Structure formats: C-alpha cells, structure tokens
C-alpha cells in the first residue's frame, strides 16, 4: 500500500499532467444516449420482479410468480427480486442491490428527470420485501428457494415447482452480514422516502435500527449458520464485520444519531475498516464504507480521518497506468478484478469513483496518489470510460446492455428471458423441459431490456453464450450502481 503524503496544492496541479495522459481520451461529444440507457437500466428491475405484478408493470412478458413464498412458515414473503438468471430470492445480494439503488437516488436522483419515479419504484419493490423479511423481531428471512434444486432446472419463474424453502437467521443462528446489509438498505431507503412518503420512511428507519441491533448483538456469519443453503451461491467469504460498519454508516447518515458515529469510531479497527479497501460488492463493502464515511467528513473533521485515507488509497489503486496487484485493465480499457461476473466490479467501483469525485468537488480537494494527484474530473473520466465501454466503446463494438444500441447480448443466461413467455406458450414447461431452450443456439425470445451481463473476458472477448454464465448472466447488483452513473452522465453531457 502506498504511503500517503500530503503535498502543497501548487505542486499537486503540476503533478496532475502525467496521470491525465494515462486516462482514456474523452470520447467524441457524447455519442451515447445516457437517458435511454438510464431508462432501460431501471426497466430491467421490472423483469426481475417476483410476486404479484402490479397493473402498471411495463415488462409485459413476465407474469405473477412465487405467490406462496413464506406460507410454510406462516409469513408473507412474496415480492422482491430474483437476483439474476435464476428463480431464487437471495436476501444478501437483494439487500445490497437495494442499498445501491437507494444510494443512486440519494446522490443522483436530481439528475434522473422523468425516470426518478421509476427509480424510486425499483427501490420500493426491494424494501417492501425487506420489510416483510424483517417483520418478526429477532429474525431475518434471508432466502426463499432451494438454490440447488432451482439451479437443477431451467424453468420460468411463473412455472417454478422446486421447493420454496425459507431460510432465516436469528439469535441461535446469527447472520450479521445479511442482517447488517438489510439494515443498510432500509436506512438508505429511509433517506429516499423522507420527503416523499414520510410515514414509510419512518417505518424503514425504525426497522433499520432494530435489524442493526439484532445484527450487532448476535454476531456471526450467515454462511456458518446456513452453510448448506447459502454456499456456494452467496456465501459470505469476507466475514460479517464490514456489513456492521456499513450498516452503522448508513444509519448514521439516515438518523444523524451520535451513537452510530461512536460505533464506527469504536469499532473501526475491531471490524477491520482498513482491510481489503479496494473491494466493493455484495460480499465486501470496504471501499463503499470508506467513501461513504469520507463524505460525512469531507471538509471538516479529523474525527475519522483514516476512512478518508483509505478512500484515497482505494481511488489511487484504480487509476489506469498505476500498477496494482488486484486491479487490471483489459487492452480495450475495461477494469478487471479476479472472479466471475467482472461487470459487477466495473459498475460498483465506477459508482464509487463518481460519488467520490462529487464529494471532492464540493470540498475542493484532490486525491494524493504517491507522487501524483488525481482530480475529481479525472475520476469522472475514468468512470465515464467504463460506462462508455459498456455502451459500445469496446473492441467488440457491442453494447453489454440488452436492448441498447444495435448490437448487444442475445443469449443471456436467464431462465425467464430464454424460455417462451407465458403469453406465447401458456402450457407449463417443466424443470427439464426447459433444457432445450437453454441449449438452443437461437437468440432469447424475450428481450430483458436493460440487463447488463457479466461481460467480456480480460481479452475483451465475449462469446454471447448462455452456458457461459460468468459472462452472459445479468444481476441486479450489476445494474443498481449504473442507475446513478447513467443519470449523472445524462445530466452532465459536457461537464466531465
Ligand atoms: C477470452 O476469450 C477468447 C475467446 O473465447 C479467448 O481466445 C481468450 O484466450 C480469452 N482470454 C482470456 C484472458 O481468458
């Protein structure tokens, strides 16, 4: 890790030039239709809906599904989102998705124009479910659906006949990771609804407070408590400590209560705030914690200065042209991290670059990176280069968002998209009967407009093949940060 040395500002400006040369050139005056991409990125969430679909549902090829979720336990667990191309409701990534959708609205809602209402509906579809999943005090329902049985079938959600087993964490089987993330989502959403639906906002915040208290009092990882159900799917490899800090950070932002600031300060080292600082995803919240807490501090306190230093270090690790063992760029300029579904890293890290650049701009700061310095505008340009890559500025000359541009993925790894819809084929298609659609070389019959897939490999190649799920599967947490990114670049076409 680079040691950070603060330098006089005049020197910073001089040192800026080498880094600017490393950053991608600005693309010719906004060739991309960020407004269209924004609309589609939100529409995607309607295709992922579980439960009873409302009359204003725009993705018409989807129908009601999983209407009895939770009934075996005597609770209503209908609704929420399928995480990706399957039919399981995984609470851990769903909560992370909700947190990031809410963060997108909090930071960039004013740039969403007529799409703001749809973005808020997307948040609410998740939080209505998370409220159900936390309605029993001391319990969080964290998953509906037997993931092994589900993954053994290629079935439409509307036909699904695999066991809808419910899994929960409680005092005897703790899950501070999933409960901490759920608290973060509810707290973040309470900010979204504060001026729009004050009573809903108050209920979200109250619930966030009690869910966080449960998460903190009964510490443990849900992947220990529920290992056979949640691993290897959304197994918490990274520990639950980061979600406790993350939950406290969002509760601090939402409630402004001193106790959460104290919690962060007192637990900073115990909970490893400075571990793996350049990760941000459904499992690992570290970079997000540091960026979010830095915002609170920017311009004033020495109070939690270490978070700002971590955030700066994280930003430096992403700069193209600077060697970092955990960050790479493809020859075509796409950010890469090891592990499947690379696009989740691209979108979540780009979101942090953009959010941080705005916080820096407001407090008139640069990021010191060893002998260099990074300006807010450099951070925005890197984020924009990633978004532009997704929309078509790449060696394949294709968009990685279904339905955007003229060339995009046609065979996404997604059950509902790849099997004829209930409207086109009303008869039931059973577990194994769906295999012929999975194996078909034909394009998917239903366009899941707005879905962004796992993306190309480190050589910028993309096979557009359903079985290659690491590259062809969309997920809700790939899209959630894009909602904020597209909104910003739509509203600021030249100002990058
Ligand atoms: C990417 O995929 C292409 C085509 O499938 C393959 O030739 C290439 O070796 C892959 N690159 C990496 C780094 O895996």
From TrEMBL:
Domain Glycoside hydrolase family: 34-485
Keywords in alphabetical order: Carbohydrate metabolism, Cellulose degradation, Glycosidase, Hydrolase, Polysaccharide degradation, Signal
One GO BP annotation of this record: cellulose catabolic process
Reaction(s) this enzyme catalyzes, per UniProt: Endohydrolysis of (1->4)-beta-D-glucosidic linkages in cellulose, lichenin and cereal beta-D-glucans
Active site: 413, 464, 473
GO MF annotations in UniProt: cellulase activity
Gene3D superfamilies: 1.50.10.10
Signal peptide annotation: 1-29
Keyword Nucleotide-binding: no
Family, per entry: Belongs to the glycosyl hydrolase 9 (cellulase E) family.
Protein's name according to its UniProt entry: Endoglucanase
Organism: Acorus calamus
Gene name of this polypeptide: CEL1
């Amino acid at each position: 890790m680079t040691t950070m040395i603060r330098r006089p500002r005049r020197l910073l400006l001089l040192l800026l030039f080498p880094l600017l040369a490393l950053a991608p050139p600005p693309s010719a005056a906004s060739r991309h239709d960020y407004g269209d991409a924004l609309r589609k990125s939100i529409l995607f969430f309607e295709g992922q809906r579980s439960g009873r679909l409302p009359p204003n549902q725009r993705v018409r090829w989807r129908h009601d599904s999983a209407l009895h979720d939770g009934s075996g336990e005597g609770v209503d667990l209908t609704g929420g989102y399928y995480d990706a191309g399957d039919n399981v409701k995984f609470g851990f990534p769903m909560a992370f998705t909700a947190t990031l959708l809410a963060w997108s609205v909090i930071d960039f809602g004013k740039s969403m124009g007529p799409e703001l209402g749809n973005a808020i509906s997307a948040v609410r579809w998740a939080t209505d479910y998370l409220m159900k999943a936390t309605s029993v005090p001391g319990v969080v329902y964290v998953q509906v659906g037997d993931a092994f049985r589900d993954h053994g079938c290629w079935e439409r959600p509307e036909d699904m006949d695999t066991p809808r087993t419910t899994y929960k964490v409680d005092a005897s089987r703790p899950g501070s990771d999933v409960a901490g993330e759920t608290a973060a989502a509810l707290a973040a959403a309470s900010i979204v609804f504060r001026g729009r639906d004050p009573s809903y906002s108050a209920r979200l915040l109250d619930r966030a407070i009690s869910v966080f208290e449960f998460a903190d009092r009964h510490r443990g990882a849900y992947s220990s408590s529920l290992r056979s159900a949640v691993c290897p799917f959304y197994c918490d490899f990274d520990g639950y400590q980061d979600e406790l800090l993350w939950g406290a950070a969002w509760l601090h932002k939402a409630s402004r209560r001193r106790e959460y600031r104290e919690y962060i300060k007192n637990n900073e080292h115990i909970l490893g705030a400075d571990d793996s600082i350049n990760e941000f995803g459904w499992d690992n919240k570290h970079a997000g914690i540091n960026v979010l807490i830095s915002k609170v501090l920017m311009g004033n306190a020495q109070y939690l200065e270490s978070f700002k230093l971590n955030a700066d270090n994280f930003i430096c690790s992403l700069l193209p042209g600077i060697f970092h063992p955990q960050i790479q760029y493809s020859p075509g300029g796409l950010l890469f991290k090891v592990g499947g579904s690379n696009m989740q890293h691209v979108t979540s890290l780009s979101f942090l670059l953009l959010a941080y650049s705005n916080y820096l701009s407001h407090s008139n700061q640069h990021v010191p990176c060893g002998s260099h310095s990074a300006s807010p505008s450099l951070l925005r340009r890197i984020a924009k280069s990633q978004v532009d890559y997704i929309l078509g500025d790449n060696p394949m000359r294709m968009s990685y968002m279904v339905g955007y541009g003229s060339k995009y993925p046609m065979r996404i790894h997604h059950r509902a998209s790849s099997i004829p819809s209930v409207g086109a084929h009303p008869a039931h298609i059973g577990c194994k009967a769906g295999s012929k659609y999975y194996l078909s070389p034909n394009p998917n019959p239903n366009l899941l407009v707005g879905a962004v897939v796992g993306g190309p490999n480190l050589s910028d190649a993309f096979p557009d093949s359903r079985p290659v799920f690491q590259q062809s599967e969309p997920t809700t947490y790939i899209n959630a940060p894009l909602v904020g990114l597209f909104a910003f670049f739509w509203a600021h076409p030249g100002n990058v």
